Amino acid sequence: MTPNEINWPAALRAADSAEQSAAMQTLREVLQNGLRIALHGRGDVSEAHLEDFAQESLLRVLDRLDQFAGRSKFTTWAQAIALNTAFTELRRKRWHDVSLDALLANGDHLADPAMIADDVLGADEDRVRLVTVLRQAIEQDLTTKQRAAILGELREMPFDQIVELLGTSRSAAYKMLHDARRALKQRLQEAGITGADIQNAFNL
Fold first, then answer.
1. What is the pLDDT of residues 38-75, one digit of tens each?
2. What domain range is 24 assigned to?
3. Tally of domains within the chain
4. Residues 122, 137: one domain?
5. Domain end marker among 94, 129, 149
6. What pLDDT band is residue 119 in, cutting at 50, 70 and 90?
């Protein structure tokens, strides 16, 4: 039986342990093969990483079986979970052992075009203006911890690592990010930058 012919929810819930184990092994291989294709060419991903990502993804799929609504193929749904798992772990690895001072220093790189997707605004002068206003707002309108939190978010640092870096609780970190986003949004709007541009660029 091919992966496309398996009734995955039933097989993964099978009372027969041998049937369930076989389904889990097959799904793990499907996820690993999908990740190998999706992450091909990345120098920071080894075969061992792919195995770890696939195993962690399998566990997450099993935990969320009840959430599968059947609106897509099961393997498509599971691969989406696997990709999210892999990218989360890669971001976590990238930010491992980063200090608060190092994160704040990343504010110097906000002018880097990589901070904003190429198709966000269009004209180069508009992009430069948005980034200039954003940098001023981050430097002038935010507290040190708010600045660290928003820079971490812009650099795609996992939220749990932002919380750990700030030495605070999750609820306090959420509040810092909320207040920081609100302050930046207000400054950008005062500069005549549209809500659509703000949303597309920074999800504020």
1. 998 888 788 898 999 999 999 999 999 999 988 889 99
2. 3-94
3. 2
4. yes
5. 94
6. very low
Last residue of a domain, one of 94, 119, 135: 94
Spell out a b/e string for 64-92, using b for 16 or more CB atoms within 10 Å of the CB, else e: eeeebeeeeebbebbbebbbebbebbbee
Which amino acid, one-letter code, is at 124? Answer: D
Condensed to tens digits (0 to 9), the pLDDT of residues 70-95 reads: 888 999 999 999 998 888 777 767 65
Whichever domain contains 180, its CATH number is 1.10.10.10
Q: Residue 67 belongs to a domain with what CATH number?
A: 1.10.1740
**DSSP string across 130-190:** HHHHHHHHHHHHS-HHHHHHHHHHHTT--HHHHHHHHTS-HHHHHHHHHHHHHHHHHHHHH
Question: Could you tell me if 82 and 132 lie in one domain?
Answer: no
> What is d(CA 160, CA 158) in angstroms, rounded to the nearest whole number?
6
**Can you read off the two tokens belonging to residue 116?**
């904003």
Q: Is residue 120 packed enough to be buried (19+ CB in 10 Å), middle (13-18) or exposed (0-12)?
A: middle
Whether residue 133 is found in the same domain as residue 53: no
Position 102 scores a pLDDT of 59
Higher pLDDT, 101 or 13: 13
